[in-house]
Amino acid sequence: MMRLFSALAAGLLFGLGLVVSGMTNPAKVLNFLDIAGSWDPSLALVMGGAIAVTLPGFALVQRSERPLFETRFTLPKITRIDRPLIIGSALFGIGWGLVGLCPGPAIAASGLMITPVLIFTGAMLAGMAGYRLITKD
Amino acid sequence: MEQATDFTPITALLGGGLIGLASVLLLATNGRIAGVSGIIGALFSPGEPDRLWRIAFVIGLIAAPWIWVLAPGGAPTVQVATSLPLLIAAGLLVGVGTQIGSGCTSGHGVCGLGRLSGRSLVAVLTFMAMAAATVFLMRHVL
Questions:
Q1: Residues A112, B117: Cα–Cα separation, whole Å
Q2: Which positions in chain A touch B70 (Cβ < 8 Å)?
């Protein structure tokens, strides 16, 4: 039960961060990516602000043997830089650049029931589900 | 579709800090990486045993803007494209791409870089470069 509550709290906090920083507005994201045009550097500071917390925070957390409400840490095991990493990230980048939505802001902004965002998120979920069902990953 | 937005350094840093805090919280309590594409993607995996915490995280994420609406901020600004084929193509690319590449802006960006993962650094540089190139093409070439 506690681990559901903590996951809910983390989701809420994460979403609030996205709203406060303006990252739920695709125009702001696209203007960050548009270096040759109306550049808005905000996204760099959002990333920077987040990493300024995760860098020391993760190091501190991983000093303990196990998380508070689970028996162990579940961390990515792969370290090699392979073809799927590059191809997948490239495809994601193209999609991100087309509309300015990535998974976090897409889900958070979907809560506001804005039709274009819901259409994007529906397609995104279909893409995720299709991949997972086909690869049985 | 090109709408000017203001550079907002204070709220960007503040919001970024909250995102970082949320990621540290999830690792400290549940031992999990706060990567949104991974948390959601695994919900569709036939063999995934651990769905409930993922659903709880997603509920929190969806509910967050409403706290903002009901509290001081008012409705958050959302300026988004309206072309149906564009939205569907972009959504599919983001959905499939993040699953093939095992992560997005949160998993590889906020969390991966926070763990000093070389794999995540390569992913971030790749999707940032491709996204910037896509915007350049869409706004300044086509």
A1: 34
A2: none
